[in-house]
Amino acid sequence: MNMTLGAEDKKKLGILAVVGVMALGAAFYMYSELSTPDAPQPAPTTVTTPARAPVKVGEAKTVGTAATHLDPTLHMKAMLVTESLVYSGSGRNIFSANSAPVVVIPKAIASARPKGPIVPAAPLGPPPPPPIDLKFFGTATSANGVRKAFLLHGEDVFLASSGDVVQRRYKVRTISANSIVVEDMTDNNTQTLPLIIQ
Question: What residue ranges are annotated as transmembrane (predicted)?
Fold first, then answer.
């Protein structure tokens, strides 16, 4: 029993030693990476360009795009020349508020306000309901004395008595010899349809 415990302890001690060596190696590697000085920066180079001929106003100038043609220094003489330029174009100078063209607004021919008293417009009410799309063209009386109306909707002919609903929309209220009263149930609109004689 003691022998197995000793062997296990030696095995654990060996694993611990390997892990410790690896940790020391990693720490040394990180220290050496962080402590190495950076590579020295190259010394800045200055580019000298030969003196250029002065540019005339209105003359195009070729500008190089390579690094050897770039000159970051300010040339005060060239800046003073551009400051003394005077705009001589025929259009508007966008750098001056005084060069805007004068806008002439024509005078009104007639007065914008009508003469005389102003009459307020009559308030508009709701629009009238649409007409009921049925035509009443006759009646028939059954043997028991119930009067029925002949109604036409497009090409369809209906025979309806009081209380019947036509086209699932129009309810027949009353039937007389010369007219009928029909209610449009979609908008509670009741209208009297006269007899159409053909």
Answer: 12-31
